[in-house]
Amino acid sequence: MVRVRYAPSPTGEIHIGNARTALFNYLFARHNKGTFILRLDDTDEKRSTKEAIDSMIRDITWLGLDWDEGYLKGGDFGPYRQKERLDIYNHYIDILLQNGFAYELYYTDEEVDSIREEYEKTLKTFSYRKLKENETEERRKSFKEKGLTPAIVFKVEENKEIVVHDLVRGDVVFNSNEFKDFVIRRSNGLPVYNYATVIDDALMKITHVIRAEEHLSNTPKQILIFEALNFSLPTFAHISLILAPDRTKLSKRHGATSLGQFREMGILPEAMFNFLALLGWSPKDNREFFTKEELIELFDLSNVNKAPAIFDFEKLKWMNHKYILDKDLKSLCSETLPYLKDAYNVLDCSERTLLILDAVRGNMNFTKDVVPLSKPFFERTLNSISETDLKALQDPHALKALKYVLNNLDSVEFTQDDIEKFLNSLKDVLQISGKKIYHPLRISLFYSRNGPELWKIFLILGKDEIKERLKEAISLISKSIQEE
Ligand code: GLU
């Protein structure tokens, strides 16, 4: 039975790399009909705030990563917050001490830091082992008298070869001399990541540890702890970094870096899901669009790329655009309603709101784009049209066309067919070129030459509003002609 976990350190917004890690774990669990667990690596008291945890939950829920077990859900292997597992960590520290795999070090973190600094200045190599060898009985006594707790250091056998069998990277060989003894519990009583993670992964019966490449170098240390405690090893899969198209670290200047920022800018969750799944994985064909179900069906760690994944913001934008076009209109409305409500006090997904969305979605890259694109349906802004548009209105033919439409509007039945027929007939009736009719009409009704098809603009505005706008345009034209 596959059991995987996403174990964020909730200290701020979820970085896109972590979101992708969570997503790969999710897909792997679902593909294998396994269990997806959410665990909080929240021992950093200061930074693991309630806000950080809440925003993490909000964003992975938005992305559609529902977990089966863990924080807020419970399960047989809890608690699922490291903060609440300190007794468990201490229990295994005792076992490591009893069996000679670790030792107590009677120095505070601050003391160690300053000793290390001294060593660095004199180019001597710092080692916990040496520090321990020179530790005096006197120091231990005074340490205890002050009520301080010793740090716990894991003892590393020298010159030991450790092989990480990684599903993505193959066998990666490390030598224990690269890291030597290391602290597993600080003098403040809190466990370090490498230790707590092992205890949790082992006790929670995690079968596959899928995480970011940056943890590959931590893995040999973790393997030594697994072995010292006779825990069986999970299978590891370290997924590559995400870089910007210029191959530098992804940063704000490339668009955005956190899941929350993408949500806020108006990316649809299903587009984000699809896009992230293809970041470092591909099903070995050239398809770009997949439903969540298809991704679950196809996902396989053996097709995860070793090379860094390139985060192409333009591609995400394009994908989002496609998802907006394909989305069921009512669901698109629920996504965009908050923006429409804010901007124009639109209260529900009425037929008119749906028509508006249908008219503008062809130009939407982000759901938020609905606001500027639909503005002319809600506000009259003839006064702020561009110089060239004003010129187009001042063409003598324009006035004729607008007046004709104004006078004949009542005879048109307001269906797509009839509006189109009416619009198409204008060229013949007026004997004017199409451009000189339709541009002034668009400018008068939609304040721009671009935008939705004219029949849609007609249908959405309705006869009364069209008449008002035409009158306004006609009066603007008449005034400017008089002024000349
Ligand atoms: N809290 C760690 C992180 O967010 C977890 C790493 C792991 O998955 O072991 O990087």
From TrEMBL:
Keyword Chloroplast on this protein? no
Q: Where is this motif: 'HIGH' region?
A: 8-18
Q: Under which EC number(s) is this enzyme classified?
A: 6.1.1.17
User: Which keywords describe this protein according to UniProt?
Assistant: Aminoacyl-tRNA synthetase, ATP-binding, Cytoplasm, Ligase, Nucleotide-binding, Protein biosynthesis
Q: Which EC class is the enzyme in? A: ligase
Which Pfam family, any one of them, does this sequence belong to?
Answer: tRNA-synt_1c
Q: Which InterPro entries match?
A: aa-tRNA-synth_I_cd-bd (IPR045462), aa-tRNA-synth_I_codon-bd_sub2 (IPR020751), aa-tRNA-synth_I_CS (IPR001412), aa_tRNA-synth_I_cd-bd_sf (IPR008925), Glu-tRNA-ligase_bac/mito (IPR004527), Glu/Gln-tRNA-synth (IPR000924), Glu/Gln-tRNA-synth_Ib_cat-dom (IPR020058), GluQ/Sye (IPR049940)
- One term of GO molecular function: zinc ion binding
Reaction equations catalysed:
tRNA(Glu) + L-glutamate + ATP = L-glutamyl-tRNA(Glu) + AMP + diphosphate
Q: What is its main location?
A: cytoplasm
A cellular component term, taken from the record's GO annotations? cytosol
GO BP:
glutamyl-tRNA aminoacylation
Q: Where is this motif: 'KMSKS' region?
A: 249-253
Q: Which PROSITE patterns match?
A: AA_TRNA_LIGASE_I
Instruction: List the subcellular locations.
Output: Cytoplasm
Q: Where is the Glutamyl/glutaminyl-tRNA synthetase class Ib catalytic domain?
A: 1-318
Task: Specify the Aminoacyl-tRNA synthetase class I anticodon-binding domain's residue ranges.
Answer: 352-474
Q: How does it assemble?
A: Monomer.
Report the function annotation for this chain. Answer: Catalyzes the attachment of glutamate to tRNA(Glu) in a two-step reaction: glutamate is first activated by ATP to form Glu-AMP and then transferred to the acceptor end of tRNA(Glu).
Q: Which family does it belong to?
A: Belongs to the class-I aminoacyl-tRNA synthetase family. Glutamate--tRNA ligase type 1 subfamily.
Q: What is this protein called?
A: Glutamate--tRNA ligase
